[in-house]
């Protein structure tokens, strides 16, 4: 029989595991509940029968420039250095993504960096302010229309925050991040190590109506905020990817890098093809036979366990604000993480946010999620 905890953490993903670890390290009594039969949430991975590690929810590249976050994750996993490179399959050519200046000059004409100052009204306007129209039409518009299932004009301009044109042709996805890598033994093992010594109840779905004994101090809820409130104001929209895996026993490597984007409608409904062997340490990959490819096709999930990307438009942001107001009126529950805050967080951002929340809670801050 478990004693009444001081803190209840709902969800054993990176957010929940980080909060639970930091509270446990500070000598607090913590209980973690997880609705699934396994830990690690969206970063869960497993090893294919051929020995190649596959990330269940798409490829996860870890990068951070924060010494605090980097030293935290290195407590729980040995990282092998990995800097992601992505190609787009366009016109029979593997083109580096983000695009380099030389590609634009070769295929379109002289490249001029966009003027600053204009506030775009939507995704299409924001993208066209960053890149020439032929680039937008080929690489960005169809990719995003497949990804989100709606016309690009209806998406939020904020979605363009992650785009840039590489003036120096640097083909690394995140060249500015100081630390980049992938855990040698995978993310699930890393989260397992984060949760060591902390009781975790799997297959345990917490709802607002659950008869769980209230923790003495606080509940951290990292599940979907709209689900917590029984969808009383309507459902927040998400997109996810359906993944079809293919093992090719006689192929050493099929594509030039871990991720190849398939942006064009005529290539099919899928938007990218992942080859997992590229993500593995070279010494481990060299010993394996064959390769595993995964095609990712976007869809709109109903099941909260499949939620991946929050939908980037104004209607969903407005709906989220209504849930946030409800959340503010609930005492003893703090909503956090990518599902609790309906927000895309990279792994390092999710961990950094969880560190900051746990630190404030331990310091007795009355508003730790601010
Ligand atoms: C397709 C995709 C690719 C990504 N690639 C990268 C990348 O390359 N690099 C990067 O830095 N980041 C990447 N990310 C982001 C990364 O996945 C997130 O930062 C991270 O998963 C956030 O962790 P979390 O704990 O907040 O959420 P989650 O991992 O979703 O954890 C929430 C947990 O709570 C559980 N739960 C939910 N509701 C309940 C309930 N009612 N009761 C009990 N348990 C519940 C869930 O089962 C889950 O285990 C990617 C995200 C996506 C969608």
Task: Write up what this structure looks like.
The protein has 370 residues and is of the alpha/beta class. The chain has 2 domains: 7-80 and 180-236 and 310-362, Rossmann fold, CATH 3.40.50.720; 86-162, no CATH class. The protein is 27% helix and 20% strand. The chain is built from 11 helices and 17 strands. The strands form 4 sheets. A 7-stranded mixed beta sheet has the order 8-7-13-14-15-12-16, covered by helices on one side. Helix 1 packs parallel to helix 11. The relative contact order is 0.21. The model has no long low-confidence stretch (mean pLDDT 94). Residues 10-16, 33-36, 41-43, 57-62, 205-206, 222-223, 308-309, 337-339, 345-348, 350 line the site of flavin-adenine dinucleotide (FAD). The site of flavin-adenine dinucleotide has 34 residues, from helix 1, helix 10 and helix 11.
- Bound compounds: flavin-adenine dinucleotide
Strand content: 15-25%
By DSSP (H or I, 4+ residues per run), the number of helices equals: 11
Distance between the termini: 35 Å
Annotated CATH homologous superfamily of the largest domain: NAD(P)-binding Rossmann-like Domain
The general outline is globular
Estimated structural class: alpha/beta
Number-wise, the strands total 17
CATH topology of the largest domain: Rossmann fold
The whole-number mean of residue pLDDT values reads 94
CATH architectural category of the largest domain: 3-Layer(aba) Sandwich
CATH class division of the largest domain: Alpha Beta
Sketch the major β-sheet.
7 strands, mixed
Give me the Rg, rounded. Answer: 22 Å
Task: Give, in spatial order, the strands making up the sheet with the most strands.
Answer: 8-7-13-14-15-12-16
Low-confidence stretches: none
Total domain count = 2
Portion in helices: 25-40%
Q: Topology as H/E string?
A: EHEEEEHEEEHHHEHEEHEEEHEEHEHH
């Amino acid at each position: 029989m478990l004693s009444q905890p001081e803190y209840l953490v709902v969800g054993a993903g990176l957010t929940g595991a980080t909060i639970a670890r930091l509270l446990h390290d500070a000598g607090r009594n913590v209980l973690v509940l997880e609705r699934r039969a396994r830990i690690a949430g969206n970063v869960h991975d497993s090893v294919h029968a051929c020995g190649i590690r596959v990330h269940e929810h798409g490829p996860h590249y870890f990068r951070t420039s924060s010494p605090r976050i980097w030293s935290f994750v290195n407590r729980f996993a040995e990282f092998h250095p990995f800097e992601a490179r992505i190609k787009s399959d366009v016109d029979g050519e593997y083109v580096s993504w983000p695009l380099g200046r030389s590609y634009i000059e070769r295929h379109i004409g002289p490249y001029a960096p966009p003027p600053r100052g204009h506030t775009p009204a939507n995704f299409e306007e924001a993208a066209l302010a960053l890149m020439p129209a032929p680039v937008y039409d080929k690489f960005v518009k169809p990719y995003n229309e497949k990804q989100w299932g709606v016309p690009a004009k209806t998406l939020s301009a904020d979605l363009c925050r992650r785009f840039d044109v590489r003036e120096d042709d640097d083909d690394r996805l995140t060249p500015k991040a100081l630390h980049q890598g992938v855990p040698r033994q995978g993310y699930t093992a890393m989260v397992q190590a984060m949760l060591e010594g902390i009781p975790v109840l799997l297959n345990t779905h917490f709802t607002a109506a659950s008869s769980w004994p209230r923790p003495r101090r606080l509940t951290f809820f990292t599940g979907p905020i709209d689900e917590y409130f029984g969808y009383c104001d309507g459902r927040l929209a998400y997109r996810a990817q359906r993944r079809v895996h293919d093992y090719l026993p006689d192929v050493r490597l099929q594509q030039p890098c871990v991720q190849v984007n398939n942006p064009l409608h005529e290539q099919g409904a899928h938007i990218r093809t992942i080859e997992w062997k590229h993500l593995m340490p070279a010494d481990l990959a060299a010993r394996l036979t064959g390769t595993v490819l995964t095609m990712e096709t976007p869809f709109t999930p109903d099941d909260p366990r499949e939620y991946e990307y929050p939908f980037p438009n104004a209607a969903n942001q407005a709906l989220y604000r209504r849930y946030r107001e409800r959340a503010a009126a609930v005492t003893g529950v703090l909503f956090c993480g990518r599902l609790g805050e309906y927000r895309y967080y990279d792994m390092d951002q999710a961990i950094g946010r969880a560190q900051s929340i746990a630190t404030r809670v331990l310091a007795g801050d009355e508003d730790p999620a601010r």
